[in-house]
Design brief:
Helix content is 41%, strand content 16%. The chain contains seven helices and six strands; from the N terminus they run H-H-E-H-E-H-E-H-E-H-E-E-H. The protein has a six-stranded mixed beta sheet, with helices on one face. Strand 2, helix 4 and strand 3 form a beta-alpha-beta unit. The longest helix is centred in the N-terminal third of the chain and has 21 residues. About 6% of the residues have low confidence.
Length: 191
């Protein structure tokens, strides 16, 4: 599995670099997101219910395990990441800032740490990385890839945003689109 994940990441990096060089946008390229970038946003598409957190081996920064039902009434940002991924490391400052900026308005950020390599499964390594990146919001340790599969995920990092009713409204794969993602957060908080 390690070779498959490494090969997948290498392929994604290559495709992303080629697309960027050609000026092609691969992600967050829906009409709703394009309209948000120009300031004339139509309603965000409904993509079904936010999947629950399944098969979590441990929760960090929360006194009890979280469920999607616990989060209803809040706008929810789920961030699937792993600490050794450079793309995740570059995304974390934005996620931490969104948590700090919008938590009082009703944003709940939940990290889902899904390891790519064996040393990323170690809880103490995850704790150190969370401390290093100033992550204070809840994080699920998904060492069995159960939540990863529930979200039909294939990438690190991957952001998912749900509205206050628990409906998935937006997702973004990889780095970038930070302004667009923040606009979606604000739109969902103001709805």
């Amino acid at each position: 599995m390690k070779d498959a994940l490494t090969n997948r990441r290498a392929l994604l990096d290559l495709l992303g670099a080629a697309a960027a060089a050609a000026g092609i946008r691969l992600w967050a390229d829906s009409p709703a997101v394009r309209a948000m970038e120009t300031g004339s946003a139509p309603p965000l598409p409904l993509r079904g219910p936010l999947p629950d957190f399944t098969g979590i081996t441990q929760w960090l920064n929360t006194p009890k395990p979280l469920t999607v039902a616990d989060l209803k009434g809040s706008v929810v940002l789920v961030h699937i990441w792993t600490f050794a991924c450079i793309n995740c490391q570059r995304t974390l400052p934005y996620v931490v800032r969104w948590h700090e900026t919008y938590a009082a308005r009703g944003l709940r950020v939940v990290g889902v740490h899904t390891p790519e390599f064996a040393y990323e499964r170690d809880i103490e390594n995850i704790r150190r990385a969370m401390q290093q990146h100033r992550i204070t919001y809840p994080n699920a340790v998904d060492n069995r890839f159960a939540t990863w599969k529930a979200y039909n995920n294939e990438y690190w990092p991957h952001l998912f945003l749900a509205d206050r009713q628990g409906r998935l409204r937006y997702d973004h794969i990889g780095e970038g689109a930070y302004n667009t993602t923040e606009r979606v957060i604000r739109t969902l908080l103001d709805a």
